Amino acid sequence: MRKKKLLSLGIALVMIAGLAAGGCSQKGSGSTSDSSGAKEQESSEPVELEFLFGDPNRTEIFSRIVEDFNNSQDGVHVTFNATGTNHLEELMTRLAADDAPDLTSQLQGFELASYVDAGYIKDIKNEPFMKYIRDTELDTVTIEDGVYGIPMDTQAWGVFYNKELFEKAGISDVPVTVSELKDCVEKLKASGITPFAAGYATEWTIGQFLGYGASSILTPAAVELGDDYKKGNWTFDQPGIDQAFDVLDLVADNTQDRPFDTDVSGQYAAFAKGDAAMMLQGNWSILQIRELNPDIKMGMFPLPISEDKEALLFPKQYGFVINVLAASEEDPAKAEAINQFMEYFLNPENGGGYYYDEIGVPTANAVAEPELDEASEILQTYLQDEKTVFTYYAYEPAGFDAESWKVTVQYLNSGTKDHKKLIEDFDNAFNKYADALE
């Protein structure tokens, strides 16, 4: 899950503060002498790097890889600083204080462009470690002629399902149309099985319906508008959106009791225990579900939002992106240390090997051959058949997503099923942040 709260004003303030801090950071000339003993001591010290990390779902495995790297050699030491869900706020604060880390994460799409325009992120297209990344996986980290991020794995959003509960309800095939999804829900209910596990107390668990679930409608429309979209000439009243919102209603009407009193951990637990047959989530959830129930028989399919099964696409983006801060270019030793760390991490014989195996999802790494979790089987087929669409998240104005989550939750709480009002509220939220697109 990605929180995008960077506004254009925020970037401007960060730049001003950074310039001010830079102007005040000149050290006095003092003594320019340096003994050979001091030089020897300095050369024996490892190059220090800081990795400001922002994905709670991958904190444990990344911290383990960093520790393994530090133990594998003496020339570079990486400090792993996990910020959790406040990652972008922490990054902005650090940049404003002229205290940039060397590596960070999570920046892609329009959000990344804001940081690139401000001069904070390094173009890494010619770095040696990029040999590991497929050229076809660079869409949302490419800005003009530069590449500003390292995509790690394919993040997809859809419907997790319990294979044993589907079998119990007599469901042999996953649904590929809205009608089939409705039929699936009715069969589960007739068998005494709750269709969906929900965790609406954590707003993004259902708020992501717009940014992920409706991507096959919204992303092509936004791309087709091009510059007009970036100028804010946009509405969510797109062909097919009404039926997509019917699916949102269908899901909300068929969850466990009191879904607004359950958070994301409760959603994971309900699905893992078999208290519900399905769950709307991203494949970042695989690790959490497996920790709760290693033996669960589960799969994942794209959420149908129309009656055209040929139009059914898996919404995807890069599940994890590493960004290199431009400030590292000022220190050749740090630049080389970053290359050394990324070589270790991306090489499947080192950290890249068990990282990809443990997360169990398809990868952007051209060399790695990970062991995929069974929940990734359908996704892998859709990827091979090129039946995917980039999530609308990659095209949203910064700050819009959290606002859209609130709109979605308010709509579901109202119980009105007034799609016209929902579209109006989404449009108003978009207009509030549209300036961040330019």
UniProtKB/TrEMBL annotation:
<feature type="compositionally biased region" description="Low complexity">
    <location>
        <begin position="26"/>
        <end position="36"/>
    </location>
</feature>
<dbReference type="Pfam" id="PF01547">
    <property type="entry name" value="SBP_bac_1"/>
</dbReference>
<comment type="similarity">
    <text>Belongs to the bacterial solute-binding protein 1 family.</text>
</comment>
<feature type="signal peptide">
    <location>
        <begin position="1"/>
        <end position="20"/>
    </location>
</feature>
<protein>
    <submittedName>
        <fullName>Extracellular solute-binding protein</fullName>
    </submittedName>
</protein>
<keyword id="KW-0813">Transport</keyword>
<dbReference type="InterPro" id="IPR006059">
    <property type="entry name" value="SBP"/>
</dbReference>
<keyword id="KW-0732">Signal</keyword>
<dbReference type="GO" id="GO:0055085">
    <property type="term" value="P:transmembrane transport"/>
</dbReference>
<dbReference type="InterPro" id="IPR050490">
    <property type="entry name" value="Bact_solute-bd_prot1"/>
</dbReference>
<dbReference type="InterPro" id="IPR006061">
    <property type="entry name" value="SBP_1_CS"/>
</dbReference>
<feature type="region of interest" description="Disordered">
    <location>
        <begin position="23"/>
        <end position="47"/>
    </location>
</feature>
